[in-house]
Amino acid sequence: MLVASGVGDVIGHLAVNAQISPILLAWLVAAVIRIATGSATVATITGAGIVVPVIDLIPGVNRELLVLATGAGSLILSHVNDAGFWLVKQYFNMSVSETFKTWTAMETILSVVGLVFILLLSLVL
């Protein structure tokens, strides 16, 4: 629904006018959707659909890095709406608090470090 409504076009034009890095934009869109829904799958698929119009508006965008950035953004802040959160909690016999302190923290670190490495990679590609 978000993609069909033209949100991607609006975000694409805003990104061009704000001169934000398309890689950072892809990561941010996926991260916001992940935090809102709790689903990495939904964040990846919807984020990609929203960011696709940016490819046509900004010359020289590396599509592979956008895919990686979208995937990295979709990993941030796993919480109680995420099925993986509950799998980790049950499998490792942790409390909700312990799962937040370990799984959510690890997923967030992975997301941010992934973004940093993707941005560094964009400097050489």
From TrEMBL:
InterPro entries: Glcn_transporter (IPR003474). One of its GO terms (molecular function) is gluconate transmembrane transporter activity. It is a multi-pass membrane protein. It is found in: Cell membrane. Keywords: Cell membrane, Membrane, Transmembrane, Transmembrane helix, Transport. The chain crosses the membrane at residues 24-53, 65-88, 108-124. GO terms for cellular component: plasma membrane. Belongs to the GntP permease family. This is Gluconate permease. It comes from Pseudomonas aeruginosa.
